[in-house]
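fold-stage: in
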Amino acid sequence: MGSGMSTRCGPMGLLSWLNEVLNPKMIELDHPYFGRLEFITGKNVHNEIYGFWAGELVTPFSERPLGIFIHAGSDGPNDDHRTRYEALIEKFSDLQAGILPILFQEWKTIIREYGDDIDKIERFDTPESMANLFNLADISIEKDAGFELGYLFSDEEMNLPESYIAVDMKWEVTYSGGAD
C-alpha cells in the first residue's frame, strides 16, 4: 500500500524530505536546549561540503514555532550556540526596533519592483505603521558571531505573493560579573 513517500507538514517538511533523499544516513538529535534537530548536509556552489542542524523552536516573541538553523558540526550545537541564542532572545525587542526600518526599506523596494498598485504604498509612511505585516519565520545561528533572521512579508491588499527577507547581523557577546 505504501508508496515509499511520507507526508510532512510544517516548515521543516521539505528540508527533511530533501535530506532523506540526498543524505540517507540522517542524523537526528534530541538536544536538551534546542529540542529535536536534524543534521542537513550538502555541497555549496563551490563544491564545498557544509552542514547545519535544523528544527523548530518556540520563542517568547512568536506565537508559532520558528525554524531554527544552527551551523555546527555533526556533533551538534554547543554551549556557545546556546549562549548566543539566549543573548538574541534577551536583546530581541531592542534589535527588532532597529530591524524594522531595514524591513521597511526592503518592502518599499519590493513594492516598486512588483507591486500592481504603487499608490497603496502611501498607506505606510513609517516602519511602525506596517510592523504587523512582517512575521519572523526563522533564526539561523551562524558559525561566527552572526545571526540571520528570516522574515515573511505578506500583504494581500497589495496583491503581492508572500516574500522572504533575511536580515544578517553580527555582534559580540561579552560577559561581565564579579568574582565568585
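fold-stage: in (second)
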Amino acid sequence: MLTGRHQPRQEGRRGSARWFGNGAIGHRRTGHRSLFELELWNNRPMGTEAKTEGTKRELAALEQDLERARRAAEENQAALSALDEQRSEREGRLALALRAQQDYERRLEGKRAELARAEAEAALEGLKKQLRNRDVSAQAFASAAQAVIKTLQDFDTAQKEVEELRQAILLRAPLEARAAAADLAEDSAAPPAVFAEALTRLTEIVSQRAGHDLERDLVEAAARSPMGYDISRLPAHLQGLARERFIAIGREARRNQSKEA
C-alpha cells in the first residue's frame, strides 16, 4: 500500500481527470487502480508548489535544529560562566585563606619566641635563685665548719688537760688519789664514743668530697688536654665523663666563635 505524499487522493466522482507520467490527462476509472497507474503516479514530476512546501519543511526542521544547538550553546556558555565565577570566588577565598595562614604562622612564630623567652627568663630566675640558695648553704657550711674546727680545738685542749691532770695525779698525788686516777684512766685516755662516731662520719664525708673534687679536676684537665689525649690515661670510670666534657668544651668554643663572627 502506498503512503505519504505519493499516495493518490481518492476521488468521489466517476470519470474525474488525472495526470499521467507521459503528460496525458485521462479519467479515473472506478474500482482499483492498475499497477501501471500507480507507478506513473509515484514517478510523476514534482511541481513548484510541492518543491516549495518541501523546502519550507526542511527550513523549519533546520531552524528547529539551529534553535536546539543555540540553546545547547547558551546552556554550556552559562555553565562555563558559572564555573568562571566559581573559580574567581574560589581564588578569592584561597587568597584570603593564604593571607590568614601567613598571619597565623607569624603569630604562632611570635608566640613561640615569646614562650621561649619566658622559659629562658624563668630558667634564669631559677638559676639565680639556686645560686642564692647555694651561697646561703655555702655560708652556713663555712660557719658550721668554723664551729666544728673551733669545737675540735676545744676538744683537743680539754683532752690534753685531762691527760696532764691524770699524769700529775699519778706522779704526785697520794696513793688513794693515784688509785682513783688509775681507775679513770680507761675513760680519760679515749675520747667519748659519741665524739668518735661523729668524727668518723665527718672524716668519711670530707674524704669523699675531697675525692670527688679530685676526680672532677682530673676529668677537667684531661678534657682540656690537646685533642683529649689524656682521657685515655684516666681510670675507666672517669673516661666517659671526660669525653662528654671534651665534647661540651668544643661546642662552647664553636658557639663563642659564631658570636664573635
